[in-house]
Amino acid sequence: MPADRPSRRDLMKLAAAAPALALSAAAAPARAQLGAPAAANPAHFRFTIGDAKMTVVSDGFFTTPVSGLGVNADPAEVKDFLEAHFLSTSENYSHTNHLVVDLGDARVLVDVGSGNRFLPTAGRLMANLEQAGIDPASITHVVITHAHPDHILGLRDDFDEPILPDAEYIIGADEHAYWMQDGLVDRVDPAAQQFVVGAVNSIKTEGVDWTLAQDGHEVAPGITLMATPGHTPGHMSLRVDSAGESLIALGDAMSHPYTNFAHPDWFNGFDMDGPQTVETRMGLLKSTAADRTAILGYHFPFPGVGHVMELDGGYRYVPALWQFQG
User: Fold this and answer.
1) CA 148 to chain centroid
2) Cα 267 from Cα 185, distance rounded (Å)
3) What pLDDT, in 10s, does the model give residues 108-141?
4) 287 φ/ψ angles, rounded to the nearest 5 degrees
5) Which residue from 17, 111, 158, 160 could staple onto 151, CB 3.0 to 4.6 Å apart?
6) Which helix (H) or strand (E) holds 16?
7) Beta carbons within 8 Å of 314's beta carbon, 6+ residues apart
8) Does the domain at residues 44-319 carry the CATH identifier 3.60.15.10?
9) Concatenated DSSP letters for 236-298?
10) Residue 24 above 70 pLDDT?
11) pTM, full prediction
């Protein structure tokens, strides 16, 4: 292992410092990043999968140090890869793409974002839902892919009440069991304790009765959950099947649109079980490429929808075409 590779403790310290990092100017601007718009861009994107009406709604964005990418690879190789792809070698810019699925009588929201409890550049989901014409009260199901802050902290409002009180809340049984272990907060690295506290407080929100899901759980007809562990022990992805078409909302089973495809054997500092993450990712890449299943990456460039193409023994992410009208 190279001597200058960050340890997991270092990475968790970086996570704890994320708010300050997000507010600071990048040491070098991302080469693929255009100038900021003069006015806000639309924060939602609509498309269909069979009879399912799909809307991707942003919760905002945040940045993390690129030292957390490919932590099992040579840092010089990671840097060269990022430079070759016109990406910053100091900051990783992460979008937060939430999926709303309308199919039959169900309206399913995947993850609830971070609310006002994580970073000032995120927490915009509820406002962006309304801008997209989606009444939050109309959401029938909320699926939590995993209990990291940017996916679950938005579950509670400022009065610690569920932000969507009438929805059914669903989380993987293994994910729930991991975070709710007695004494977990005292067994993790001190820098990770805030993650545990945030997850536990969100899961224990009064008024939320959790449905604990196993692999294959049916959320509603045509909408099922897939066990995709590694990033967290009980991570789940959501699959939509309708009229012969399919899409998988990956959560963080894949979190980078370039490294995860060209170097699927690389894992990141926030992947709790690196080898398991790689095994899960390889299965997803192989199946989605073979079946031509659409994917949605939570942290991919907005709106994060595309396909997987097998290429020269590896894989490539192919963004879907943005269509202006039906």
Assistant:
1) 9
2) 24
3) 999 999 999 999 999 999 999 999 999 999 999 9
4) -70, -40
5) 111
6) helix 8-16
7) 261, 262, 263, 264
8) yes
9) EEEEEEETTEEEEE-TTSS--TTHHHH-TT---TT-SSHHHHHHHHHHHHHHHHHHT-EEE-T
10) no
11) 0.90
